[in-house]
Amino acid sequence: MKATVRAHPNLALVKYWGKRDDALILPHQSSLSMTLSPLSVRTTVAFGTGSADEVELNGYVAKGSERDRVLRVLDTVRAEAKGAKLGPAKMVSRGDFPASAGLASSAAGFAALAVAARAAAGLPADPQAASMLARLGSGSACRSVQGGFCEWMRGERPDGTDSYAVQRFDEKHWPELRMVVAIVSRDEKEVKSRDGMKNAVETSPYYPAWVKDAEVEVVRAREYLAKKDLQALGEMCERNAWRMHATSLAADPPLCYLMPKTLELIHSLREQRKKGVPVWFTLDAGPNPCILTDAAHELAAEAAAMACGATEVVRCVPGGDATLLAEHLF
């Protein structure tokens, strides 16, 4: 009744920005992401240990909302496998992310937790069920259960049973694609993503247009990925990121995640494209741009980032599925 899983984070090419149901973590619109390797989180889950649940994250005992989110996933598994009488659980999770990567580890962490918990409970391997389970811990985690390029379908049902991620293309589809994460700031965000998106949903006059537009962009993204059309995909990533940030700039109070070095790098990419270098940015709710390019121009993208003041870069390739490992963390 023990299982260990390694999962990778993901970066949305078409962003998830706003919940229609906070409790079930159901989005207002679909999104599509690229799973990122080599970054990963390993998680071991065992049931029937001790007298109470134990949750350890990166070497410390989880408390408060962090612990509650993990227990929600474990409780859901216990309810599904109630005949097994699983008992208390122990969960240990460790990530290999650079401290300054600017990429949330929660997506990889909850994807690994969902797959490991189901395996430890003796439940059958089921990417759809694992995706819905991971979503209960972190919305974007549903897109890290499988590798390559995954679409989180918004769904229509109020119970969330049709809101999960599906793999549109695996990691072998476009192995030359690269994502270069440029670290321009290590400072903690003043407004967390979940609070920023809530503010945009509730107060931004641009938000309804964002939802409509993003849903259409998912369809376009699938087409560009199928054709391996880097220019079209890059242009779409940029406009989707700009439009997401526009909802927050128009919110009340306004919220701006961009910093001067963010804008400097974005403008420099335009200059690079004039020179024939295929580089485009995408940007989550934070100041650190991610540069979409190909293998032949990966080093040029890194150089452009460093020239604009990035203190570190993380070069990523399409990553694979959340995978069971033989070696456990305890």
* Tally of alpha and pi helices: 8
Residue-averaged pLDDT: 96
Helix/strand/pairing category? alpha+beta
Shape: globular
Q: Give the uncertain stretches in residue-range form.
A: none
C-alpha end-to-end distance: 13 Å
Summarize the amount of helix as a percent range.
Answer: 25-40%
Largest sheet: 8 strands, antiparallel
Could you state the order of secondary-structure elements as H and E?
A: EEEEEEEEHEHHEEEHHHHEEHEE
Q: Give Rg in angstroms.
A: 19 Å
Please tally the β strands and state the result.
16
Portion in beta strands:
15-25%
Give a quick precis of the structure:
The protein is an alpha+beta fold. 36% of the residues lie in helices and 23% in strands.
Structure description:
It is a single chain. By secondary structure, the chain is an alpha+beta fold. 36% of the residues lie in helices and 23% in strands. It contains 8 helices and 16 strands. It has helices at residues 64-80, 106-120, 127-135, 193-203, 207-227, 230-249, 260-274, 298-307, and strands spanning 2-7, 10-14, 19-21, 26-27, 31-37, 41-47, 54-57, 60-61, 89-95, 149-152, 165-169, 177-183, 280-282, 290-294, 312-318, 323-325. The strands form 3 sheets. Strands 2, 5, 10, 11, 12, 13, 14 and 15 form an 8-stranded antiparallel sheet that branches. The mean pLDDT is 96.
